[in-house]
Write a structure and sequence with these properties.
8 helices, alpha/beta, 7 strands
C-alpha cells in the first residue's frame, strides 16, 4: 500500500451499505482493509474493479474473540480511518430471543467495536490524526418493538461515539455516528413488498433510503468539510425521525 494515501479499515465491507462505502473511499484514493465474514465474492469484485493493490481483505466472524484477533493481526499498516459497519438483526419478541443470539449480537455490535478501536486507536493518537465513523441505526435513537436487542446494542454504539469523541478530540481524532433509517438492502428481504410499501408511506420522503446515500454521508464525515464535527449522530432517514 502507498504510504502517500490514506488507509481505511471498513468493517462489514461486503454488505450492501459496506460495499458502497468501500467503493466511495476507493474512488477517493484510499487504500483499504476490507472486512467480510461470508461474502468473499463481493470483496473479490471490488478488487477486480478497483485494483488488488488498493485492497487487503480480512475474513473474520466478529461474534467471536478469535474473529476480533484476526482483525488485529490482519492490520499491519497505520490506519487513518475506521468505518464500523457491522450489522445483523433478529426480529421477534424480547422474550423469544435465545442466549446465543443475544451473545452474538452484543459481541458484534458492542464488544468487537470496542476491542478493535481500542487496539487501533494508539496509532491514530501517535499521529495526532484519525477519523472514526460508526454506522448505528435509527432504532438506536428511538427504539423498535420486536427489535429490542438490536435497538439496545445500536444505542450503545451511539453512547460509545459520544464518549470517545470527547476523549480524543484534543488528539486530532474525530468520532461520529450515522444512523440510517430504512434502507433498501438485503436486511429488509424478510419483509414483503406490501410491508416495504407500508414502511415507505411512514417516511416523510416517501421512500426507502439507498446504500449510496449512507456512503455519501460517510464521505462527508471523513472529509475536511466536516473538520469541526465530532461526537455527532447524523440521521440519514428521509425525515423518519
Amino acid at each position: 500500500m502507498s504510504t502517500l494515501s490514506k488507509t481505511a479499515l471498513i468493517i462489514g465491507a461486503s454488505g450492501d451499505i459496506g460495499k458502497e462505502i468501500a467503493k466511495t473511499l476507493l474512488k477517493e484514493g484510499y487504500s483499504t482493509y476490507l472486512h467480510f465474514n461470508r461474502d468473499k465474492q463481493s470483496i473479490l469484485d471490488l478488487m477486480e474493479e478497483y485494483g488488488a493493490e488498493k485492497i487487503i481483505p480480512i475474513q473474520s466472524d466478529l461474534t467471536s474473540d478469535e474473529g476480533v484477533q484476526r482483525i488485529k493481526n490482519g492490520v499491519f499498516s497505520p490506519i487513518d480511518t475506521i468505518v464500523y459497519n457491522a450489522g445483523v438483526t433478529h426480529y421477534g419478541l424480547m422474550t423469544d430471543i435465545g442466549e446465543e443470539a443475544k451473545r452474538r449480537m452484543i459481541a458484534l455490535n458492542i464488544t468487537s467495536l470496542y476491542s478493535i478501536i481500542q487496539t487501533l486507536l494508539p496509532g491514530m493518537l501517535s499521529k495526532h490524526n484519525g477519523n472514526i465513523v460508526v454506522i448505528s441505526s435509527i432504532w438506536g435513537e428511538i427504539g423498535a418493538s420486536c427489535e429490542v436487542l438490536y435497538s439496545m446494542t445500536k444505542g450503545a454504539q451511539i453512547s460509545f461515539v459520544k464518549a470517545l469523541a470527547k476523549e480524543v478530540a484534543l488528539n486530532g481524532i474525530r468520532v461520529n455516528a450515522i444512523t440510517p433509517g430504512a434502507v433498501s438492502t438485503k436486511m429488509l428481504d424478510n419483509f414483503t413488498v406490501e410491508e416495504k410499501l407500508g414502511i415507505s408511506s411512514d417516511i416523510p420522503m416517501g421512500r426507502l433510503g439507498l446504500p449510496h446515500e449512507i456512503a455519501d454521508a460517510v464521505s462527508f464525515l471523513l472529509s475536511e468539510r466536516s473538520s469541526y464535527i465530532t461526537g455527532q449522530v447524523i440521521g440519514v432517514n428521509g425525515g423518519w425521525n
